[in-house]
Amino acid sequence: NAGVTQTPKFRILKIGQSMTLQCTQDMNHNYMYWYRQDPGMGLKLIYYSVGAGITDKGEVPNGYNVSRSTTEDFPLRLELAAPSQTSVYFCASSIARGLNEKLFFGSGTQLSVL
Amino acid sequence: GESVGLHLPTLSVQEGDNSIINCAYSNSASDYFIWYKQESGKGPQFIIDIRSNMDKRQGQRVTVLLNKTVKHLSLQIAATQPGDSAVYFCAENPFSNSGYALNFGKGTSLLVTP
Fold first, then answer.
1. Cβ separation of B42 and A58 shorter than 8 Å?
2. B98 pLDDT exceeds 50?
3. Which residue of A lies nearest to B98 if distances are taken between CA atoms?
4. What is the Cα–Cα distance from A12 to B101, expressed in whole angstroms?
5. For chain B, what percent of residues have pLDDT higher than 90?
6. What is the C-alpha separation between B95 and B2, in angstroms, rounded?
7. Phi, psi of A82 (to 5 degrees)
8. pLDDT per residue as tens digits for the range A99-114
9. Which neighbouring-strand residues pair with A49?
10. Which residue in chain B is spatially nearest to A38 when comparing CA positions?
11. Average pLDDT for residues A21-27, to the nearest whole number?
């Protein structure tokens, strides 16, 4: 049981480039989330999904897009990367009774935009 | 806006002692609280949660206390071990109209010394 798997672990982008952060979970969880963590700060929600085909914005969605075509996968797309998107990105999932409960996190993607 | 805060950014304890990590919240509408542990280079790991209709909840070596009167949350770790060294985050589910985002604190770094 792998849990939540994120790829890549590290990436350096130039300003204006695009990329997709991959996230997959094998726990059959309905809810999935993307968070970003800036140094010395708590996590901020970018996007979340309550099931396949359903996504919604979190606190800081600007500059990102997501899709949820399957229960397992929840990729995060960065269009026109900017230095402000330098951060560590965490994908998470949960199956608990309510949204936001008992999240299982992946190991993160460290992204630098130069 | 309302946010979750932590009283101390760092905490150093000796191995075998009990640790207490504190967290203040300001949203009286919050109905669910969670503690996460994050080791260096890893994603946050769920420790324990508590709902607003409870004052105390115990897990394995950990206890969470909720004082709704003063809007205070604490995590107690019994017989602290070197493996407990990590950053600990509290998070609240404010259940507000601003969206379904967990409100994470900035974290407390726990250092366990031999």
1. no
2. no
3. A59
4. 28
5. 65
6. 12
7. -125, 155
8. 667 889 999 999 999 9
9. A32
10. B106
11. 96
CA separation for the pair B65, B77 (Å, rounded): 12
Q: How many CB atoms sit inside 10 A of residue B18's CB?
A: 12
Q: Which amino acid is at A29?
A: H
Q: How far apart are CA B47 and CA A103, in angstroms?
A: 10
Interface residue of B10, B100, B103 to substitute, partner A, most A CBs within 10 Å: B100
Chain A residue numbers with beta carbons less than 8 Å from the beta carbon of B32 are 98, 100-101
Sequence length of chain B is 114
Nearest Cβ partner for A104 among B46, B98, B107: B46
B94 or A80, higher pLDDT? A80
Q: Which residues pair with A86 in a beta bridge?
A: none
Task: Give yes or no for residue B2 having a pLDDT over 60.
Answer: no
Tokens of A83: 């230095």
pLDDT at B38 over 80: yes
C-alpha–C-alpha distance, residues B114 and B106, integer Å: 26
- Give the closest residue to A77 by CA, choosing from A32, A20, A24: A20
Q: What is the mean pLDDT of residues B41-50?
A: 92
Do the chains contact at A101 and B32, CB–CB below 8 Å? yes
Chain B interface includes A104 (CB < 8 A): yes
pLDDT band at B5 (very low <50, low <70, confident <90, very high): low
Sign of CA dihedral A42, A2, B47, A73: positive
